[in-house]
Amino acid sequence: MEVFVAVLDAGSFSGAARQLGMTPSGVSRTINRTESRLGVRLLTRSTRALQITEEGQRFGIVARRIIKELAEAEDEISAGSGPSGLLRISAAVSHGRLRIVPLLEEFSRLYPAIQIDLTLTDLLEDPSQGMTDVSIRFGKLADSSLMARKLGEEPMAVVAAPAYLQARGVPHHPEDLKAHQCLLFNFDQSRSRWPFLDKGRKIEVQVSGSFQANSGEALGMLAVSGLGIARVGRFAVEAELRSGALTEILEPYCANDQHPVHALFVGGPALPGRVRALVDFLADRLN
Question: Tell me: the pLDDT tens digits for 232-241?
Answer without folding.
Answer: 999 999 999 9
